[in-house]
Amino acid sequence: MRAPSRLGRALLALALTAPALLLATTSAQAAPAPLVGLGSGRCLDVTGNSSANGAQLQIWDCTGDANQGWEFSSSGELRVFNGAKCLDVPNGSTTAGTRLAIWDCNGGANQKFRLNSNGSITATQSGLCLDVDNQATANGTAVNTWNCNGQANQQWRAGTGPGPDPVCSVNPVTPNPTPQARKLLCYVYSQYGNHILSGQQESTWIGGPDHEINHIRNNTGKYPAIRALDFGDSKDLAPRAIAWWQAGGIPMIGYHMGAPTKPDTYDGTKIRVSINAVLTPGTAEYRSFTDRLDQAAAMLQQLENAGAAVIWRPFHEAGGTWFWWSMEGGGQYNRLWNFMFDYFTRVKGLNNLVWLHGYNGEPQSSFYPGKSVVDIGGADTYAGSGNYDPLNAMYNSVRTIVGPTLPIALHENGPIPDPDRLQSTGTRWVLFGTWHGNHLTQENSTSHLQKVYNHSYVVTRDELPNLK
């Protein structure tokens, strides 16, 4: 076995000091290797696959091509194209904002770089760091030198192959997850604390299911990263969810399930039912419950057959006494959650789900089914029209229950929290899911939507990596 390259040894050392979800390496990292931007999930890339002197650097979906294969030489060069070219600071510039390029290797000081313990890479002549311009995440974003600040757009990790997250130590709780489900969860982890994914709940009764999506597009020029749908509202949602995935987006699906034996409607969700009866084979409640699970599983199987991963958001607003699944306390709620998890993953064999557990606005630890069956935590509240508060206290309440590493979602909201205030307060919601109708169109001003959807901290659909 060949000895590890300097890049491999340095990354191995990083793996011992950095969180495993951020950097994962083998004990003998082969060179060359992709360098994946922590903030974007995209690879350090020589534009146009050009090996010409002066070809500039950008980020791009990871492809495994030679223009994304990097290796530190023993003299501190960062080589590409199988060692034929070197990363170069043009003209030896020490000015922040200089666009990086490649050039024939010449041993110059402007071709020397250092890999740091936090995953950043420093140009040793200037002391500036490799930086993805303006914290953007879109394909084609320039890579420059900039003052080192430790942010995610200046952090890199080694990859071993194509894809948005070639190396990731995070595994979904679903047994034998599909590659798409794993990529999706790895991407969510990579964004936690670095960006917030935009999400929008559809309605099907206000001018068609694209009413809210079109409102965002028409007013901001962007699509949300996440399209949120509900099986209780629409039994025919699968084609829309699949189309969203195929267009580069993420589907998030919930289910306002009516109480078993009661109407499978929103009004039915508010009718009390014995959970003991629901979970006892042979009862009418059990037969009704498993029939509804069968219908939901068949819908989710359509997405798996199409290669789509799903953020699955069942039994939401845990702890709120208005839905039947929370009316009998945390112990009974957790029994329901675990039954569904086992039924979907082991009986139905669904492997494409990323499980989001969502509290109401007052999270209670007794309603947490545990990290072995939850991929993403969450909570929700509706702050009131025009109130763009970051909801820091609610975020911290969830974090206290689920721990510091599990990503936490604002899985429903009316007004969208102000991205600047999210960052200034350290409120690290990994996604928001604006509710439909007036919650979007009346509780968020047009100027606020424009700010949110064009903010560097907010991920929109065009900025997502390839998760397929």
Automatic annotation (TrEMBL):
Q: Which residue ranges does the record assign to the GH26 domain?
A: 179-462
Keywords, alphabetical: Glycosidase, Hydrolase, Signal
Could you say which residues form the signal peptide? 1-30
Which Pfam families does the record cross-reference, listed alphabetically?
Glyco_hydro_26, Ricin_B_lectin
Active-site residues annotated for this sequence: E317 (proton donor), E412 (nucleophile)
Q: Kindly indicate whether the keyword Cytoplasm belongs to this entry.
A: no
In terms of InterPro entries, this protein maps to: GH (IPR017853), GH26_dom (IPR022790), Glyco_hydro_26 (IPR000805), Ricin_B-like_lectins (IPR035992), Ricin_B_lectin (IPR000772)
UniProt cross-references to CDD domains, sorted A to Z: beta-trefoil_Ricin_XLN-like
Protein family membership: Belongs to the glycosyl hydrolase 26 family.
| Name of the molecule in the record | GH26 domain-containing protein
